[in-house]
Amino acid sequence: MTRVGKWVMIVVLGLLPVFFLPLTQDYYDTNKWALLVAATIFILILWGLRVGVTGTVTIAWNRTIKGLGVLTAAALVSLLLSPNKVEALLAPFGVGTLLSLFLIVLIGSTFFDEKARNILRWTLMTTVSLSGLLAIYQFFGLGKLIEINPGLMTILIVTLPLLIAEAFHRKRAGHDNHMIVAIVMTIASLGGLFFTVYQVLPKWGTTTLPFWVNWQILLESYKNWKQLLVGVGAENFLAAFTAGRPAGLNETALWNTRFTVGSSMLFHIATVYGLIGAAATGWFLWPLRRGLMLAALSLIFLPPSLPALAVITTLLIFSESTHPISLKGSHLSRLIAALVFLFAAASSYGLIRAYGAELAFGRSIRALEARNGTASYNFQIQAITQNPKVTRFHTSYSQTNLALASAISGTASASAEDRQTATQLIQQAIREAKLAVNMAPTNILAWENIASVYQTLTGVAQGADQWTVAAYARAMQLDPTNPVIRLRLGGAYVGQQKLDLAAESYTTAITLKPDYANAYYNLAFVYREQKKYALAALALKETLKYVTPGGDDRSRTQKELDELNELLTKEEKLSLP
Hints:
The protein is an all-alpha fold. The protein is 73% helix and 1% strand. The longest helix has 40 residues, at 330-369.
């Protein structure tokens, strides 16, 4: 059992940085998470068997394990207060991930001797250098096997000192062959890091949440005493982002970007797990200051990454000595073994259902890309059946129902049975959209989805127009500084012929984002409908300032402005700037 556990740890932790499967919606993190959790369950079962056979309970213990344990405890406390516990468990930086890493260092380390640690070190160095080599290949267009992102940059940065130290150690020891291998891996990692940085840095401003924004989000969330202590929950960073999003973000290239992770691991944990999580992260980081300073700095300053966190945990396994703690007693060992098996069985069942749902949803996405709406519909049903607690499954299913209803009722040859089917699909679309907002009442995407569903059904379903406005009103409460929601609300008011309210909504969008061309253009349309031609012309002039030069939008706007000028009086023309 010890031998099997040792090799499972070596294979899983060593291969995790390069592991992916093109089967789920997200090829990378979802599958890395599933592999990590599955390996932890397997290690737990082996450990339980060993406890039952030997009558001895053995765990590893050091300061790092204590810090990771406190961080896991903070996540568990936050889980108890989370409105959607399933999504909190499945989040990349949720309880499932932290608990798995904690159990791996707590009990998985007991399967290791010095030889196993050395094998794990070389396995990790090999896979990380392979990641660097693949990054070089991808830069030159030779396929796509890994994800080029800040997480890969973190992995390469924190492992480079290990590779360099290994090369010097082998040189001093006179192991020329090992030294050459270590030097080759160092060069591959350096090259991969160079090309990764070359590709990531130009996109940094449009893909990474700025620290000043995350700081304001953190302060806003801490106004609630419960969130101050235990955070907003692992699955709710997006909700914290929209609630605390500063209006100044609208002046940057990130104005229409939403973030589900923080600026760094430290900022992310502080947001989702509160002051308790931030303190636990500090405890976890403190031992890293000796020998693993780059790892500590990466958690403080670089964007959070599941594989990077797993790699840092792996580095700790063979970088810091552990003190085994053993307790003997047949009755105690049998009780602990029984509890371990019950926990492993429940976890296995949950993992199988959760990952099966992800596989079905991934197939639905591919079916949709192949324009097979019926197959996508059926796969989404499978996903929801296996895991009904994932919000995005319900929002996607509602949109699929709506699209199928539109396709069926839009045909000239639609029979009475077809129309009945379309009606049923519309009802299902509304039901699923409502389920999504009930499961995640602070999720802006769920509220935007239900608003779009009702807006599409305006004129078809009774009261849809009123529900559209109500949904957008709730979305504005959740994301008060977002001008896009005001723009969409204005469109809903135009559909109801409430032009004054539409103009007010468009004006608010412009206040939030003064260079918002779409808002000026839509405001011009409303003023023209109200026969306020001078105001409409003024709005179109503002539109021309911000539309892309030389594009179709600019030529269309100029044409409409020319037409408006024909409707203006001489005095109105003179009054325009």
